[in-house]
Design goal:
The complex is a heterodimer of chains A (183) and B (425). Chain A has 6 helices and 5 strands. Chain A has 183 residues and is an alpha/beta fold. Chain A has 2 domains: 132 residues, no CATH class; 36 residues, no CATH class. Chain A is globular and about 55 Å long. In chain B, strands 8, 9, 10, 11, 14, 15, 16 and 17 form an 8-stranded mixed β-sheet that branches. In chain B, helix 5 packs across helix 6. Chain B has 425 residues and is α/β, with parallel strands linked by helices. The chains are: A alpha/beta (183), B alpha/beta (425). Chains A and B meet through helix 5 of A and helix 7 and helix 16 of B.
Chain lengths: 183, 425
C-alpha cells in the first residue's frame, strides 16, 4: 500500500495473516520493505501479531523501517518508522517513465541483499522455533475455528455517530457468538 | 446489513421531559417533543361546539387545547416523570401509546414506497420493570396493525448511552429529574450490578426552594419553573464544601449570587448568604453533610430508600459510593476497566464553574473523581457523554441498525427483536 499527501509518502508492506509461517513470503515482504526504506518518507512492515511476537524489532529499527502489528480487532504501531527526506516519492503504480528507476533500485537491492542475509538467517531461526510453539499436537479450540462472520458493511450515508463506533461490529455478532460456542 | 434498515431503523427515547424520536435518516439529531399528553375536557361547551377534541393530545398541538391552569395537574400528564409508570396508570400509558404512534406517523413514508414498517428501538429507564416492556411491545403491536412497525425491541437507557458514546466497557451514570442509575456495561448491560439512587435534579430544586424561603422569597419559591431557573443560574458544585463555604463567608462579594429574570422586576440576591449556592450542587452529589440537617429538620423532604417496580432506590448514599457498590458487584478482573471509563449522562450533570471561582466550584466529572478518591479509588476516568441530549437516541439507532434480524427477543436476556405481528410468548 502506498499513501502520499502534502509531500510526504508512506509505503506499507503487508504480510498476510495466512502466510506468516511461509518463510519465502516473509523474506519477500522484508525485502520489499527494505527496498522501500529511504526511497519514500516512511516505510512500514505490517505483521500479524502472532508473527510480531517472535520478531526482533531492532533489525527494522536500525534500517528505519516501522512496524505495524494487526489482528482481527485492531492495528497498532509497534515501532515508528524513521522519516527520510525524499524529493521523488516511490510511485504507487508503475508506468513507462519509472521503469528505469525500478531497474536502478533492483541493482541497489542486490547490494543490500548481502547485508540483509545475516538478519534473514536470524529470522529463519526464530520462525523455526515458533512453528513448534504454534503447531500444537491437539486440535485448535472451537473458538478459533468458528465460521467467519460476514463483514460489516457500513453505508457511507449513515449519520456521523456511526463513524468508528465499535458497537456496530459488537452488535452485529449478537446471536452469532452463541452459535459459534455451541458448534 | 440489508439496505432496508439503512432507511427504516427508528429510535425512541422516552425521557422524563422530552420524547426524542425519528428514523436513521434524520441524521445526527432526532425530532424532539415534550414527553406529555393533554386530556381535554370533552364535556366542556367549547369542546362540544367544536366537536373535534381527541381523547388525548400530544405534540405541538397541546398548547392549543390547554384550558384553565387549575386543570393542568390532572389533565396534563408527563408519563415518564420518575422513569417508571405505574402498571395501573391508564392515562400515562395512553399518552405513551399516542406519542409513539404520533412519532411513527410523522415519518411514515408515502404509499407506493416499499415500506413494510419500521424496525423500532425504544429506550426505557434501566429500572423499568417487566410490565413496562410488555406494555411498550403492546404499543408496537398496535402500531404494526397500521403498518408502522415491522419489528421492535426495548433497550435500557444507560446501554443506549454507552452505544451512542462508542464505548463497549464502561460505567454509565444516568441522572435525571427524579433519580440516578449506575449501570456497568461490558458488551452487555450487567443488570445484576445496577445501583439506583433516589436523588436527581429534583433534589437540587428542593434545596434551592428552601434557600429561597430562608432568604425571604417564599412566594417565588412556590413556582417550580422559577426555582429551576435560580438553580441553573446560581447553583454551584463545590470541590470541597467546607472550604468553599468558608471562603464564601469570608468574602461574600466575590461569591455574590444575584439574578434578575429578564423582562421583569423579579430579582434574587443571596447577598451575605451567597455561600449557600454551594449547597445546591453538593446536596445532589453528597447529601450527608451536617450543613443540610437544618433544612431536613425543618421539613425539607429527605431522600428516602424506596422501591419502584423491582428496584430499590437508595436515598442518601453519595454518587461515589453508588459507583463503587455497582462496580464491586462485577468480576474483579473487569473492575479496573470499568473505573477507566465512567460516563455521566443526563441534565443533572450540567454543572459549570465560573472562571473566577474555579478554585472552589467545579464540574460533575471532577466532583465525581473527588468522591471516588475519598473512597480510595484513584486513576479513574470520568467524562460527560459526547452528546448528552441525543446519546440515547444515537444508541437506539445503532442498535437497530446492527443487531441481526434473526436475534429474537428473549425475556431472560431482555434483548432481541420482537416480530410484532407474532405472538411474543
Amino acid at each position: 500500500m502506498f499513501f502520499e499527501a502534502e509531500g510526504t509518502s508512506v509505503r506499507v508492506v503487508i504480510l498476510d495473516q495466512a502466510l506468516w509461517a511461509d518463510r519465502q513470503k516473509v523474506m519477500d515482504c522484508i525485502m520489499r520493505a527494505s527496498a522501500s526504506a529511504g526511497k519514500v518518507s516512511r516505510t512500514y512492515l505490517a505483521l500479524p501479531k502472532t508473527a510480531a511476537s517472535v520478531t526482533d524489532a531492532r533489525i527494522f529499527q536500525e534500517r528505519g523501517i516501522g512496524l505495524f502489528t494487526y489482528d482481527q480487532r485492531n492495528i497498532e504501531e509497534a515501532l515508528p518508522a524513521r522519516y527520510f527526506e525524499v524529493t521523488n516519492a516511490f510511485p504507487h503504480h508503475v508506468d513507462d517513465t519509472t521503469t528505469s528507476q525500478l531497474q536502478n533500485e533492483l541493482r541497489e537491492l542486490r547490494v543490500e541483499f548481502a547485508e540483509l542475509e545475516q538478519a534473514v538467517q536470524h529470522l529463519k531461526e526464530q520462525l523455526e522455533s515458533s512453528k513448534e510453539v504454534f503447531s500444537p499436537s491437539r486440535p485448535a479450540p472451537a473458538f478459533t475455528s468458528r465460521k467467519q462472520l460476514p463483514e460489516v458493511q457500513v453505508v457511507a450515508s449513515l449519520p456521523t455517530f456511526f463513524a468508528g463506533n465499535p458497537w456496530v461490529e459488537v452488535l452485529s455478532r449478537r446471536g452469532r457468538e452463541e452459535i459459534g460456542i455451541v458448534s | 446489513m440489508s439496505g432496508y434498515r439503512d432507511h427504516y431503523t427508528f429510535g425512541m427515547d422516552f425521557g422524563t421531559s422530552d420524547f426524542k424520536f425519528g428514523p436513521i435518516t434524520c441524521g445526527d439529531a432526532p425530532r424532539v417533543l415534550r414527553n406529555r399528553g393533554y386530556f381535554p375536557d370533552r364535556d366542556s361547551i367549547m369542546m362540544c361546539a367544536l366537536n373535534q377534541a381527541p381523547e388525548v393530545v400530544v405534540g405541538e398541538q397541546v398548547p392549543l387545547y390547554l384550558q384553565s391552569s387549575e386543570d393542568l395537574t390532572s389533565r396534563l400528564v408527563y408519563p415518564m416523570r420518575n422513569g417508571v409508570i405505574d402498571r395501573g396508570d391508564s392515562k400515562a400509558w395512553r399518552v405513551v401509546n399516542e406519542i409513539s404512534r404520533f412519532g411513527l406517523k410523522t415519518f411514515q413514508p408515502n404509499p407506493g414506497e416499499n415500506f413494510e414498517g419500521f424496525y423500532v428501538v425504544a429506550s426505557l429507564s434501566s429500572v423499568s420493570p417487566r410490565y413496562m416492556y410488555e406494555n411498550l411491545f403492546e404499543t408496537m403491536k398496535t402500531a404494526a396493525k397500521e403498518g408502522l412497525v415491522k419489528a421492535g425491541t426495548v433497550i435500557p437507557q444507560p446501554f443506549a448511552v454507552a452505544i451512542g458514546h462508542g464505548v463497549t466497557t464502561c460505567v454509565v451514570v444516568e441522572s435525571g429529574h427524579g433519580n440516578t442509575q449506575v449501570c456497568p456495561i461490558s458488551s452487555y448491560p450487567i443488570r445484576s450490578a445496577l445501583v439506583a439512587v433516589n436523588r436527581g435534579g429534583g433534589e437540587a430544586n428542593s434545596i434551592t426552594a428552601e434557600i429561597l424561603k430562608d432568604l425571604g422569597y417564599a412566594d417565588l419559591a412556590r413556582e417550580e419553573a422559577f426555582v429551576r431557573r435560580v438553580k441553573e443560574e446560581l447553583g454551584l458544585l463545590p470541590l470541597d464544601l467546607e472550604k468553599a463555604v468558608k471562603a464564601a463567608r469570608e468574602n461574600p462579594s466575590k461569591f455574590r449570587a444575584k439574578f434578575k429574570v429578564p423582562g421583569t422586576r423579579v430579582e434574587v440576591d443571596f447577598a451575605e448568604k451567597s455561600w449557600q449556592r454551594f449547597l445546591i450542587g453538593e446536596y445532589v452529589f453528597s447529601p450527608q453533610n451536617e450543613l443540610f440537617q437544618s433544612y431536613l429538620t425543618r421539613g425539607m423532604p429527605r431522600p428516602r430508600d424506596i422501591k419502584l417496580g423491582d428496584t430499590v432506590f437508595e436515598g442518601m448514599i453519595d454518587f461515589g459510593e453508588a459507583i463503587v457498590r455497582s462496580v464491586e458487584r462485577c468480576p474483579v478482573e473487569l473492575q479496573p476497566l470499568l473505573y477507566k471509563e465512567i460516563l455521566l449522562s443526563g441534565g443533572n450533570f450540567s454543572w459549570e464553574a465560573p472562571e473566577k471561582l474555579r478554585d472552589f466550584a467545579t464540574d460533575a466529572p471532577t466532583k465525581m473523581k473527588v468522591l471516588l478518591k475519598e473512597k480510595g479509588i484513584r486513576g479513574v476516568s470520568v467524562k460527560m457523554t459526547k452528546n448528552p441530549q441525543y446519546s440515547v437516541w444515537h444508541g437506539c439507532i445503532i442498535y437497530g441498525y446492527a443487531v441481526p434480524e434473526d436475534y429474537r427477543w428473549n425475556w431472560e436476556r431482555m434483548e432481541g427483536w420482537l416480530p410484532v405481528a407474532a405472538d411474543p410468548s
